[in-house]
Write a structure and sequence with these properties.
alpha/beta; Metallo-beta-lactamase, Chain A; 10-stranded mixed β-sheet; 6-stranded mixed β-sheet; Metallo-beta-lactamase superfamily protein; transferase activity
Length: about 375
């Protein structure tokens, strides 16, 4: 499948025209030229939303990566506590010399949980310079519209949201083809209303001068997309995704199995440490995601593999083989979150016992100096 600027603009002419008529450019296409990967000194990652909270976790350090857990997760009022939900949101602070940048990656399932945790963790939203959405699943963008409603005025006027490509805006469903349940759609009309520029980053893209995205992830390992959602390729009145470059069945408006064509990973290159690869869900394969990061950056050393790896539904033999492939990548540390699965955690602890750090809602991880 190929995707070009001409096809996108054709499928989204009404939306783009409306935005331009209002004097606001809502769409950018990431350049296809090779990127120059930035090197940073330090990355601090705060887990705003994840699927669970463990108040008994203690501070730890593995292979130079420091973990500061949130303890009880309660505020000064004992009735207030961190909220967990099936979803993920990460607050990423990076430093290079005197230059500090902040990126927000994904937004959890609901704005209510996100707001609650932002307040309890005392996160300074005003530091955010860019937003990234990893893929088009509601548990990763569900809190976005509410987040913009509440905080847009505190964010930069030229705020950009980096999406992996047009597929991120497709309408998705759960269940079988015979009994589909709505799973939502990322509505770019909300982004236009809040004057957020969408960058379609099908190609690798540098974000805020500190991070980079992998672009479209090549399927080159033994991994396969495990059971998840169904997807419909169409756009009506600005809602949905352009289908002009997909298959005949998709062009007919049929609902088809979801291949997460434009899911991308967010990465940092830490000075003297190597790559931190953040795979929010890893439907394209966590090994594939790391290999893609290595290829586009030209950097082989992997310091950390972080995030959701979507291996919860993996059968034992498949899971064992994938952890073996992760081990071959020789990461200093693996930090499972969200959809990685308890089965994955047990297997990676068995195969790589000295390279695993636990995570919980409210965790803070520090990479580098």
């Amino acid at each position: 499948m190929t995707f070009g600027r001409r096809e996108f603009l054709k499928g989204s002419a009404a939306l783009g025209g409306a935005a331009l008529a209002g004097g606001f450019t809502c769409i950018e296409i990431a350049d296809a030229a090779p990127i120059e990967v930035p090197t940073i000194d330090k990355l601090t990652m705060r887990v705003l939303v994840d699927s669970s909270h463990d108040q008994f976790l203690r501070p730890a350090e593995v292979q130079g990566v420091k973990h500061l857990p949130p303890g009880s997760g309660r505020g000064p009022d004992y009735r207030l506590t961190l909220h967990n939900q099936w979803g993920l949101s990460l607050f990423l602070d990076s430093v290079r010399g005197d230059d500090a940048k902040t990126i927000m990656l994904d937004f959890g399932y609901t704005p209510e949980a996100l707001f609650n945790n932002i307040d309890l963790l005392k996160v300074d939203i005003k530091r955010i310079g860019a937003l990234i959405v990893s893929h088009g699943h509601y548990d990763h963008f569900g809190g976005l519209a509410g987040f913009l409603n509440k905080y847009r005025s505190a964010l930069p006027a030229d705020l950009k949201l980096y999406a992996g490509g047009e597929d991120n805006f497709c309408h998705r469903f759960t269940g079988s083809a015979n009994q589909l349940l709505d799973f939502g759609v990322l509505d770019r009309r909300d982004l236009v209303a809040h004057k957020v520029t969408t960058v379609l980053a099908e190609n690798p893209t540098v974000v805020s001068g500190h991070a980079f995205t992998t672009g479209k992830i090549a399927r080159r390992s033994v991994e396969r997309v495990l059971p998840n959602t169904q997807v419909k390729f169409e756009i009506k009145d600005g809602l949905g995704c352009d289908a002009s470059h997909y298959t005949a069945a998709e062009l007919q408006g049929k609902v088809v199995p979801d291949e997460h064509i434009h899911e991308h990973a967010t990465c940092f290159n830490i000075k003297d440490k190597g790559l931190v690869v953040i795979s929010s869900c890893g439907h394209a394969g966590i090994v594939n995601s790391v290999l893609q990061a290595q290829e586009v950056s030209g950097i082989k050393k992997v310091h950390a593999i972080v995030g959701g790896f979507h291996l919860g539904p993996a059968p034992p033999d498949y899971l064992k083989s994938i952890v073996a492939e992760i081990r071959k990548l020789e990461p200093d540390v693996v930090i499972p979150m969200h959809c990685s699965g308890g089965n994955f955690v047990r297997e990676v602890q068995a195969q790589m016992p000295g390279n695993v750090l636990p995570s919980t809602t409210g965790s803070q991880f520090t990479f580098g100096a």
